[in-house]
Amino acid sequence: MQACGSGGGACTPSPGVLWLGGVPGAGKSTVARIIARRWGLRWYRSDTYTWAHRERAARAGVPAALLFDALTPAERATRPVGERLAMALQRERGPMTVDDVRGLPTSPLVIAEGTQILPDIVPAGGHALWLTLSPEQQRLRLARRHAPDPVPELYVLLGAVIAEEVARAGAPQVVVDGLSVAEVVKAVEGFFAADLAQGPTASSSQERRALLRYANLAEVQRYADYAARPETGSFAAAVSTFMCECDRTGCEATAEMAVADFLQLSSRESAPCLAPGHDG
Questions:
Q1: What is the DSSP string of the chain?
Q2: What residues contact residue 195 under an 8 Å CB cut-off, 6+ apart?
Q3: Neighbour order of strands in the sheet with 42-45
Q4: Is pLDDT of 277 > 90?
Q5: Does residue 149 have a pLDDT over 70?
Q6: Are 57 and 65 in contact (CB under 8 A)?
Q7: Best CA proximity match to 213, nearest among 160, 271, 261
Q8: What is the pTM of this model?
Q9: Distance from C-alpha of 241 to C-alpha of 276, rounded to nearest angstrom
Q10: Cα–Cα distance measured from residue 129 to residue 188, given in angstroms and rounded to the nearest whole number
Q11: pLDDT at 32 exceeding the cut of 90
Q12: Using one digit for the tens of pLDDT, what is the confidence trace for 33-45?
């Protein structure tokens, strides 16, 4: 594990937001999900806003966004990896992520995570940490995640870009090579210890469940935004992974189900989404 001090001096906590960036494959989403559940935080996951951000960029006339929309998936896959990186809108989506987070309720604390969170977009005084990997370990993790498909070279290049920007800024980071999920969670909790102690965090069962439902509905919205695109259509057959909405603060379980089934379940306010074997 490597912890680096900020090049601009000691980090000052950013009221209301814990910023967690890092390279693809480093475990940002897993760590943020566990910490949000354990402490009663609101989990903002930039990935769930992918298609909404694309729509915003296209409306603004961003050339890379317009090119992405003009190509078929097969055509995009044949473009050079540098061009695909531009079409990923990494640079454009960072400020959009900050805008999204600014629009969230101020209580409880928000843990905001995503590859788009880079040192130069974190608001002044923001308290931010990055999870990084060596290139070798990143390839191994991505190979396991995407098997039997090949490692996405776009993610490898994106990881190199992020790692370089974090190093150049002297920003705080945890190199997660060889660390278990529990060890990374402990390191991230330690970094944000003052923020977590100060709060505010959700205290009641009702508040915690509302935050879990918020995170799950954000996942549904990602599918809805994707389905609204001309080349896609209905997401009726899509299956995704949702957070278990049981009342255990230490629960790390998830439930896999059809997005349409979750929507039907969530229409009944008193019906939680539960992992197998968990009760309400």
A1: ------TTSSPPP-TTEEEEEE-TTS-HHHHHHHHHHHHT-EEEEGGGGHHHHHHHHHHTT-HHHHHHHHS-HHHHHHS-HHHHHHHTTHHHHHHHHHHHHHTS-SSS-EEEE-TT--TTTSPTT-EEEEEE--HHHHHHHHHHHHTTSPP-HHHHHHHHHHHHHHHHHT--EEE-TT--HHHHHHHHHHHTHHHHHH-----SHHHHHHHHHHHHHHHHHHHHHHHTSTTT---TT-EEEEE--SS-TT---EEEEEHHHHHHHHTSTT-----TT---
A2: 13, 18, 109, 127
A3: 42-45, 110-113, 17-22, 127-132, 173-175
A4: no
A5: yes
A6: yes
A7: 271
A8: 0.91
A9: 13
A10: 8
A11: yes
A12: 999 999 999 999 9
Q: Please name the residue that has the structure tokens 């989404």.
A: 273
Cβ atoms of 59 and 127 within 8 Å: the answer is: no
Token pair belonging to 126: 């923001």
Tokens 């935004």, residue located: 225
Structure tokens at 239: 């299956």
Q: How many CA atoms lie within 13 A of 203 on its CB side?
A: 4
Give bridge partners of residue 132 from the DSSP assignment: 175
Backbone φ and ψ for 274, nearest 5 degrees, come out as: -120, 140
Q: Can you tell me the distance from the alpha carbon of 189 to that of 229, in angstroms, rounded to the nearest whole number?
A: 38
For residue 217, give both structure tokens: 């509905």
CB neighbour list of residue 212: distance below 8 Å, 6 or more residues apart: 37, 243, 244, 245, 272, 273
